[in-house]
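Researcher: Structure prediction, please.
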Amino acid sequence: MDKKKENGPTGLVHKQTLYMAILVSITFGFMVGAMYTSFKLAGDTPMAPIAQQPSDPHDHPEGQEMSAETGSRILKLEQFLKENPDNVDAWNQLGNLFFDANRFGDAIDAYERSLALKPGDPVVLTDMGVMYRRNKNPKKAVETFDLAIAADPGFETARFNKGVVLMHDMEDTAGGILAWEALLTVNPMAKAPNGKLLSSLVERMKQQK
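Model: Predicted structure follows.
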């Protein structure tokens, strides 16, 4: 990452550049609700994730070619849902397939159908928030993460994602720090994906203000 110099002594950088450097160092892609949370108590043994963590949302534009297998699974689920429109699990599976295929709008639509049948599912809300972010609607992403948090105040992934979107996409560093501090009230030993304590990272960012 190129460092932008301030008008002044050589070697100084903008605080926002420092914040972004910290974010880049602790986030590998973006957290999804269906995967095992990276925030765990020290000494916990992590479980295997049940959904793959996506790469950076800007790396894969919507509409990229999907695999034949994924396309076939989507078609089968769509046909199944025509006959079973009240099947929540099928809507979730369809949303997840669209998620993996980077079909953001279609994923959001599928998750909305799921939530209409089973409101307040924090996992689905978190995944939908990720899709809003990848669809370049960070404000809606934060609103959706807030719904996930309201549904389950202890759902740490939604709290972490909210902080990332506020800091990275909306350039609201203070709001992002507050979101992560709220996470620390839920789990003081929360860790970032790189294994560092989130509390130490928050303090580091606050010192840069």
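Model: Residues 1-18, 34-63 have pLDDT under 50 and may be disordered.
Researcher: Thanks, that helps.
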